[in-house]
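Colleagues,

For the teaching module next term, I've prepared a clean inverse folding example: a structure given as tokens, and then the sequence designed for it. I'd like students to try predicting residues themselves before seeing the answer, so please don't circulate the second half yet.
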């Protein structure tokens, strides 16, 4: 019995991935333009940033290959923000992040940063809920930082305990 050989998919006949319900799909064309399939119009990175700020779930796909480019677009937005005003990351913190790429701890560090960001977001949301109508100011936020520091310390202790239990060694210094 002969089996038919499957023709390898080329970029021309690769089917577009099925969109998840409620997910907005953006296409990126070779001319670097972004196309919003929901509104049937071209959009800018500023529009994508607004979608992020508004909590819109979306994915960006290459129009031809259908490769997921979402992370790349989000990194472009971060780069524009970092170069356009008051940066969030210091040169030192960016260098430290780069040092984790290719390191055995890369996956652990990504998870740790994600949990820290979520803890920070949760705390900000609680502040907003507990103080309705109170203007958000650096002074008000400073009062919460003590709680955030405690939560961060707790997460770090949990992470270190997990590493100890896994038998992994974690270097606490940085290479010079």
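(Answer key — instructors only)
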């Amino acid at each position: 019995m002969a089996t038919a050989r499957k023709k390898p998919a080329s970029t021309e006949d690769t089917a577009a991935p099925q969109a998840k319900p409620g997910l907005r799909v953006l296409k990126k064309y070779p001319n670097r333009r972004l196309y919003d399939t929901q509104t049937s119009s071209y959009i800018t990175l500023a529009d994508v940033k607004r979608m992020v700020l508004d909590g819109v779930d979306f994915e960006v796909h290459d129009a031809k290959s259908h490769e997921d480019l979402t992370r790349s677009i989000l990194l472009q937005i971060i780069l524009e923000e970092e170069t356009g005003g008051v940066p969030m990351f210091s040169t030192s913190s960016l260098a430290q992040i780069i040092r984790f790429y290719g390191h055995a701890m890369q996956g652990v560090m990504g998870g740790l940063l994600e949990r820290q960001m979520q803890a920070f977001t949760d705390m900000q949301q609680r502040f907003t809920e507990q103080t309705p109508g109170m203007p958000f100011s650096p002074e008000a936020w400073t009062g919460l930082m003590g709680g955030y520091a405690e939560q961060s310390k707790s997460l770090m202790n949990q992470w270190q305990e997990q590493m100890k239990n896994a038998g992994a060694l974690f270097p606490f210094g940085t290479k010079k």
